C-alpha cells in the first residue's frame, strides 16, 4: 500500500529517511522473492505493484529535493534506486516469464510511471552540474546545520577522551584525517557522528540519537551505538554496533561485524537518552547496497567477526588519566595560524584587474588614465565629461603569465572578462568606480584577500601608488582570524607603498561589512603618484579610507608600530613584523588573558589560535591595547580638527 507523502526539512533528515525506506523496500522485495520461490496462491503481481509504487514514491522524494544535494549524493541515491528497480523487474520477470510468442501489450500504469520518471531524470541531470563533488564537500555541507559541532581533525598518536564536560547538548561530532589514535566519546546528547579518513585507530562512542556516518576508514576497530549506521568506501574494519535498523555498507570490503558489548557506569543513562534499547540490536542484519544487483544472498564484503566477541569495560577516571591531549589543544591544531602571520599577504608590484579569482596586470596607459581621473574627480572645477570618459573598453591588461597564451600582448579588459564569461551591468561604469576609490592599506591590496571577500565573480580594479605624509600602522585590535590588522597614521615626510581599490557601489557595501571596528573617512587632499613614476610630482586627490576607530597600536605614544612588510621611505615610526607585533601584544596582555608557557613560535601559535577560537579573549586584549593606543585620524575628526582635510563618513 502507498504510504503518506515523504517529507524532510534538510539533507540529514532526508538521508536518514531515504536509507530507512530503501532498506525496508529491499527487505520486502526479498520477502516476495522467497514467497515466489516457495509457490502458493498469493497475489504476487499485486504485491509487486505495491512495491513498484513505493519505489516510485521514494524516487519522487529524491526528485523533490534534488537541488540541495551534491553531485556525489545524487549519484549515490540513484545507484540505490537503480538496484531496487532491477530487483523488482527481475521479480516480475520470474513471476511472469515471457511466452514464445509475444504480442505488444498495452502499457500498464507502472510502465507509464517508469517512463515518466526516466524523462524527469534526464531533465534533472541536464540541469545539474556534472562536476564531481568530493566526499569532503558532503561532510562540510552536512555539518553546516549544526551550531554545536565538535571537530577532531588532523591528529595522530594521541588518546582522546570526550565526556559531557566537553560536549554541548545535541552535539554533532566530526572526525577527520585522524590516524593511530584511541578515541573515547562518552557523553549524552550526541546527535550525530561524522567520520572520514580514520585509520589504524580505535573508537568507542555511546548514545547517538541520530546517525553515524563513516567514510574512507581503514584498519580500525569501532564501537558505536546509534539509531542508524552507514559506512562507505571503507576496508578492513571491525565494527561493534548497537543499532535498531541494521548497519548499511556501500563500496566497502573486508568488513566484520559484532554486537556492541561496551560497559561503563553511565552507559545505561546515555543509551536511554538516545532512545536505544540494548535488546533491540540488529547488528548482524547488514545491508550492502553495492551487492544488491548481484542477485546473490550473501555479500562477500562483510562477515561476522569470527573470534569470540570481546566486551569492553571502561573506567572514566582511568581514561582521563590516559588522555594525552585536550579538546582545546585539538582545536588549536585546527586553526590556520599562518593566515594571521602572513598578513597583509602577497601584493603585486603593479596595478592590476582582479577577475575570476586571478590578477591581470594593467598596462601603463590604463593605469595613468585611472589615476588622472581620480585626481580630476577631486578638482572642484573638473568637467563632468572628463571624469565620465572612461569605459571598460579603454582599459587593457598585459597578457603573459596570468593568461594562458604566450607573450606580453595587450588585451582589453572587456575581452578578458568575456573569456571568463563575466558580464558587467551597464550601470557599472569605470567612472562610477573611480568615485569609490578606497585606499587599500593592508590586505585589501592583495588578490588573496580579495578572493576571500569577493569570490571569483567580482571584478575589482587595484592601483599601486605612493601616498605622501602617511604610513601604515598596526591597529589596537585582533581580527577574527588572529592578525593584528592595519590602519592609517599621519607621518610627515613619509612616502608609503599603497593600493587603491576602485569599487562598485555593491562592492563598497560588501567591503563595509568586512571592516568591523573601522571608520570610513574621506581624505580631501591625499597626495598620490603612480608607484612606477617615482620622478613624477605628487598630486592631490579625494580618496576614501578605512581607519581604526581607536587609533593605532602604540606604547603610550612613545612608539607607533608600523608594518615592516609594507615598503616606505623616510619612516619616522617603529617597524615590526606580524610575528614581532604578536609577541609584543602577548606580553602586554599576560596579566589579562592566559599566555602559554611554550617557547618560541609555538607560544605565539598558541596565543593566536586561542584568540581565533575565543571572541571574549579578543575583546579583553583590545581593551588592554586601547589604553596605550595613539590617537588617530578619527580622534581628530571627533575633536573637530583638520576638518578641511578629513571628513568622517561612517563608523562601521
UniProtKB/TrEMBL annotation:
Basic and acidic residues bias (residue ranges): 118-134
Region Disordered, annotated ranges: 118-142
A biological-process GO annotation: post-chaperonin tubulin folding pathway
Domain C-CAP/cofactor C-like, chain residue ranges per copy: 138-291
GO cellular component terms given for this protein: cytoplasm
Localization (cell): Cytoplasm
InterPro entries linked: C-CAP_CF_C-like, CAP/MinC_C, CARP_motif, TBCC, TBCC_N, TBCC_N_sf, Tubulin-bd_cofactor_C_dom
Cytoplasm listed as a keyword: yes
Molecular functions per Gene Ontology: tubulin binding
Pfam families for the chain: TBCC, TBCC_N
Classification via SMART domains: CARP
PANTHER family given in the database record: TUBULIN FOLDING COFACTOR C, TUBULIN-SPECIFIC CHAPERONE C
Assembly and oligomerization: Supercomplex made of cofactors A to E. Cofactors A and D function by capturing and stabilizing tubulin in a quasi-native conformation. Cofactor E binds to the cofactor D-tubulin complex; interaction with cofactor C then causes the release of tubulin polypeptides that are committed to the native state.
Family: Belongs to the TBCC family.
The name this protein goes by in its record: C-CAP/cofactor C-like domain-containing protein
Amino acid at each position: 500500500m502507498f504510504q503518506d507523502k515523504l517529507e524532510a526539512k534538510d539533507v540529514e533528515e532526508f538521508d536518514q529517511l531515504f536509507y530507512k525506506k530503501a532498506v525496508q523496500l529491499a527487505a520486502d522485495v526479498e520477502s516476495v522473492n522467497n514467497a515466489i520461490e516457495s509457490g502458493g496462491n498469493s497475489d504476487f503481481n499485486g504485491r509487486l505493484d505495491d512495491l513498484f509504487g513505493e519505489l516510485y514514491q521514494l524516487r519522487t522524494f529524491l526528485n523533490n529535493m534534488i537541488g540541495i544535494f551534491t553531485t556525489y549524493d545524487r549519484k549515490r541515491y540513484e545507484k540505490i534506486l537503480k538496484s531496487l528497480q532491477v530487483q523488482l523487474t527481475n521479480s516480475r520477470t520470474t513471476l511472469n516469464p515471457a511466452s514464445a510468442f509475444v504480442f505488444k501489450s498495452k502499457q500498464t500504469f507502472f510502465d507509464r510511471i517508469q517512463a515518466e520518471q526516466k524523462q524527469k531524470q534526464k531533465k534533472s541531470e541536464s540541469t545539474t552540474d556534472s562536476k564531481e563533488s568530493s566526499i569532503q564537500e558532503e561532510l562540510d555541507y552536512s555539518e553546516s546545520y549544526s551550531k554545536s559541532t565538535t571537530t577532531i581533525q588532523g591528529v595522530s598518536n594521541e588518546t582522546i577522551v570526550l565526556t559531557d564536560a566537553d560536549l554541548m547538548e545535541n552535539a554533532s561530532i566530526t572526525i577527520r584525517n585522524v590516524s593511530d589514535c584511541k578515541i573515547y566519546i562518552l557523553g549524552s546528547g550526541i546527535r550525530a557522528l561524522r567520520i572520514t579518513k580514520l585509520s589504524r585507530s580505535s573508537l568507542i562512542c555511546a548514545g547517538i540519537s541520530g546517525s553515524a556516518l563513516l567514510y574512507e576508514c581503514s584498519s580500525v576497530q569501532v564501537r558505536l551505538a546509534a539509531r542508524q549506521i552507514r559506512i562507505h568506501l571503507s576496508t578492513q574494519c571491525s565494527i561493534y554496533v548497537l543499532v535498531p535498523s541494521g548497519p548499511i555498507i556501500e563500496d566497502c570490503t573486508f568488513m566484520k561485524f559484532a554486537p556492541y558489548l561496551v560497559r561503563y557506569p553511565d552507559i545505561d543513562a546515555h543509551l536511554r537518552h538516545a532512545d536505544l534499547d540494548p535488546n533491540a540490536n540488529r547488528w548482524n542484519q547488514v545491508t550492502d547496497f553495492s551487492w544488491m544487483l548481484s542477485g546473490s544472498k550473501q555479500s562477500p564484503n562483510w562477515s561476522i567477526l569470527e573470534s569470540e566477541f570481546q566486551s569492553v569495560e571502561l573506567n572514566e577516571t582511568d581514561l582521563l588519566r590516559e588522555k594525552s591531549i585536550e579538546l582545546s589543544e585539538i582545536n588549536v591544531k585546527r586553526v590556520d595560524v599562518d593566515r594571521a602571520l602572513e598578513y597583509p599577504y602577497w601584493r603585486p608590484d603593479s596595478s592590476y584587474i582582479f577577475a575570476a579569482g586571478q590578477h591581470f596586470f594593467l598596462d601603463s596607459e590604463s593605469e595613468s588614465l585611472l589615476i588622472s581621473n581620480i585626481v580630476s574627480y577631486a578638482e572642484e572645477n573638473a568637467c563632468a565629461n572628463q571624469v565620465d570618459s572612461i569605459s571598460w573598453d579603454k582599459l587593457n591588461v598585459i597578457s603573459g603569465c596570468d593568461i594562458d597564451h604566450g607573450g606580453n600582448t595587450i588585451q582589453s579588459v572587456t575581452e578578458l572578462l568575456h573569456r571568463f564569461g563575466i558580464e558587467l551591468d551597464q550601470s557599472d561604469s569605470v567612472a562610477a568606480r573611480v568615485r569609490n576609490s578606497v585606499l587599500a592599506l593592508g590586505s585589501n591590496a592583495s588578490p588573496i584577500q580579495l578572493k576571500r571577500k569577493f569570490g571569483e565573480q567580482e571584478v575589482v580594479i587595484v592601483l599601486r601608488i605612493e601616498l605622501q605624509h602617511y604610513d601604515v600602522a598596526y591597529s589596537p585590535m585582533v581580527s577574527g582570524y588572529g592578525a593584528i590588522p592595519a590602519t592609517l597614521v599621519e607621518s610627515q615626510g613619509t612616502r608609503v607603498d599603497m593600493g587603491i581599490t576602485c569599487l562598485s557601489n555593491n562592492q563598497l557595501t560588501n567591503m563595509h561589512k568586512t571592516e568591523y571596528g573601522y571608520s570610513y573617512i574621506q581624505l580631501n587632499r591625499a597626495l598620490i603618484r603612480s608607484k612606477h613614476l617615482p620622478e613624477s610630482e605628487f598630486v592631490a586627490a579625494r580618496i576614501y579610507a578605512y581607519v581604526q576607530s581607536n587609533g593605532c597600536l602604540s606604547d603610550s605614544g612613545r612608539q607607533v608600530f608600523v608594518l615592516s612588510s609594507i615598503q616606505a621611505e623616510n619612516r619616522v615610526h617603529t617597524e615590526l613584523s606580524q610575528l614581532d607585533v604578536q609577541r609584543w601584544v602577548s606580553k602586554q596582555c599576560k596579566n589579562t588573558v592566559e599566555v602559554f608557557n611554550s617557547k618560541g613560535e609555538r607560544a605565539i601559535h598558541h596565543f593566536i589560535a586561542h584568540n581565533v577560537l575565543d571572541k571574549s579573549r579578543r575583546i579583553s586584549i583590545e581593551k588592554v591595547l586601547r589604553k596605550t593606543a595613539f590617537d588617530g585620524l578619527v580622534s581628530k575628526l571627533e575633536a573637530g580638527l583638520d576638518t578641511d582635510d578629513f571628513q568622517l563618513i561612517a563608523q562601521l
